[in-house]
Every structure is written in C-alpha cells, then in structure tokens.
Amino acid sequence: MIKVERKRTEKSEKAIASLKIEKSKKGSYNTPEVNAALKEMFHGKCYICENKQITSYQIEHLVSHRGNMDLKYDWNNLFLACAHCNNTKLDKFEPIVDCTKENVETLIAFRRTGYFGTDEKLLFDMLDCRIEVQNTVKLLHEVYYGSTPQKKMEATILRRTLRKELSEFKEYVREYHEAEDEEKEDLKYLLQQHLKDSSPFAAFKRWLIRDNKEAFAELYVYLA
Ligand SMILES: [Zn+2]
Fold first, then answer.
1. What pLDDT is recorded for position 117?
2. DSSP assignment, residue 121?
3. What ranges do the domains of the chain cover?
C-alpha cells in the first residue's frame, strides 16, 4: 500500500458527475466513469495488495456504507481493489489508513525476509501505533496469508507474484552495481521505473532501498 494522490482530473470530474446523477436516482456507483477514473488514479493496481496482475477489479468503499447514501456515492470513499482484497476486507477492519490522505510508507515498513519459499516471511512493521495503522497491518497480513481455505490459495498466488517481482527487482539492483557507463544508465532508468508509484508492490521495493540506504544511496534519491 502506498500513498495515492486523489487528483482532480478530467476523468475524476466525470466520475463525480456520474455519481451525483446515480445518487439522485438511487442507481449504481459502479459507472464506467468511476471505473475509468479509479483505474487512472490507482495506476491499475489494487490499493491494498499493490498487485497489477488482477483479473477481477472491484470498487471498494474505504468506510463501509451500510446503506448510508452519502458514503455509498462519495467519490472520496471509493477505491480500486482486487476481488481477493475486497472480499478479505469487507467491514472487518475499520478504520484503516486512508492512503489518499496519508503516506502509508511512513506508518508501515513493508519487508520480505527469507530466500526460499519455506522461510519466506512478510513483515508489516508498525512505525505508528494508531488504531488505523494496527487495523491496516491486520488487513495486510490477512490479504497476504489468507483466512479461509480459498483465500489461503489466493494468498499463495499473490505471494508468488510478489516474490517474482521482488526477485527481478533485486537482480536489476545487483546488475546495476556491477554495470558501467551506458549499461549502468540503462539499468538506472529501469530501476527508476520499478520505484515509481505505478510499479507493482512499490512499497516493498522502496523499503528494500530504505533498509539499505548506504549501499543504494544513488537509488534512494528516487524514492517518492
Ligand atoms: Zn488486492
């Protein structure tokens, strides 16, 4: 989870307008305009797990609306999530950190330890003890490890995707250290892309750099 700027764009203006119309006729918040604006804003990533290889997008209410019309059609309460995360969160973890308002990476350290599948461990270290942060950590843990047999299977696939993405990232970092001249510049560009908001699992990649600040000083400057 990373901070996502809820910017006013052409797409978001259209989404807000469509929500106003739907609210007046008690229609659906799931409009094409809302979907397009959320996809743009969240860089096509689930805001909870940061996976980009999603086959099922859903619109998630940060605060469950429970029939409350204002919460149901409030643009600021709508987030893009994958089905796995949306069905994990439900209304069980309230309140959680609002990633459009707070810099999640200063509240939680995203770490992955272990080199082999058997000793792999994902850590969500709290840097702040507020209830929102505690709930977000609980949610992240359940998302990445699952609670029911089906969710455990989904979580295994999610962790595998994360592992592959981080392995590739680490490999590029290693190559960058060994490279010279033009090759080094090319790899630097590649690593910059990996550290951007739009990159999958950016929080994990950035924390890897933060935790090795001295060794990766040149890359540290690219952290948002
Ligand atoms: Zn997700």
1. 59
2. E
3. 10-89, 104-220
